[in-house]
Amino acid sequence: MSRNDIHDKTFINCMTDKQVAQQFFIQYLPKKILELTCLNDLMLQKNTYIDKKLRKSVTDIVYGAQIAGKIGYFYVLVEHKSAAEQLMPLQVMRYMLAIMHDHTKQYKTKELPLVYPLIFYHGLESPYPYARALSELFPKAYAETGLSFLTQPMQIIDVGQIPDEAFREYAWSGLMSFVMKHRATQELVNYLEEMRDAFYDIAIADGYDYYKILLEYIFHLSSPDQYDQILKVLHRMDKKVGEITMTAWDVLMSKGVAKGMEEGIERGRQAGLEIGMQKGMQEGIEKGRQDGIVKGMQASREQLARRMLEKGINLETVTEITGLSAEVLKTLDPSH
Questions:
Q1: Whole-number pLDDT of residue 279
Q2: What does residue 265 show for φ and ψ, rounded to 5 degrees?
């Protein structure tokens, strides 16, 4: 048995004795904490919160007790290695949060318990040479700021409370936030025109990948019978927007995403849109292998038009988006 194992075993065995634990807390707890605590009801907890990598140098024990009239915890960590843990305040914070988390699960409550930590140190280097508070681990220049980040209320970006005008000031992040704000709106397409400038800014800034992500998301939120109107609205905003929309739509179609959406709905909403999209992607890839790679802009437009026509999108919209003449479309339309 190593010396560290002897330290661990001795400390644990002693502190599991309730009388030892009671006197330990009476001796070492601050007076203000002790006055709030009922030590007659100490409850030894079974959990250990030490990381496996640190168990050779530290050990811990947790006692539950009535603190300020409610269940709280005393977390005692014993450090016995010759070189103290320099980041001990950070480690202790993690363990305290873990105790709180376990408490909320065990008692099915959203109220956090009080957890008071004590570090029992008997290392060779004394007095204790390292930081005792989390604030001491930050550079002095912004220690107060760093600590405030941990204690101040979280910043919640509630898009539902932000006016649409604010989104228009920031094209890239604003468009994403705008779409997510109105994601549950039945007629999302009716709101797209409000972000015309944002769509344009992204289109001229070569933001194709980002644009494609948003376009796929918009289609995902919409029903198939709205695709036609969405394409019209985007195409009429600006020539550049129309071009990037057509390119993105073509890619989505070739991957079978749009087709998957429609097939998933046709198979039944209970099957889920995700299943339809997956099936559509597989069929799209298989069709691509059979048909080969389409070469040239003209061939790409014809392929896009054929797919749109198969989906029942009217000739006027297909002509407007692809730029192909009505005569060419008639040769591609299987109904003629």
A1: 63
A2: -70, -40
Quick one: tokens of 12? 């644990």
Neighbour-count burial of 178, counting CB atoms closer than 10 A to its CB (0-12 exposed, 13-18 middle, 19+ buried): buried
- Every domain of the chain and the residues it spans: 3-151, 163-332
- CA nearest to 301, candidates 277, 281, 320: 320
Question: What are the pLDDT digits (tens) for 58-105?
Answer: 788 999 999 999 999 999 988 765 455 678 899 899 999 999 999 999
Check if the beta carbon of residue 104 is closer than 8 Å to that of residue 76.
no
Show the DSSP H helices in 205-295 as ranges. Answer: 208-221, 227-237, 239-254, 257-266, 273-291
CA distance 325 to 316: 10
Q: What is the pTM of this model?
A: 0.68
Residue 253 CB contacts under 8 Å (≥ 6 apart), including other chains: 259, 284, 304, 307
Distance, in Å, from the CA atom of 31 to the CA atom of 28, rounded to the nearest integer, reads 9
Look-up: residue for tokens 């292998």?
Answer: 289
Phi/psi at 130 (nearest 5 deg)? Answer: -115, -175
Under 8 Å between Cβ of 175 and 215: no
Sole residue written with tokens 């209970």: 270
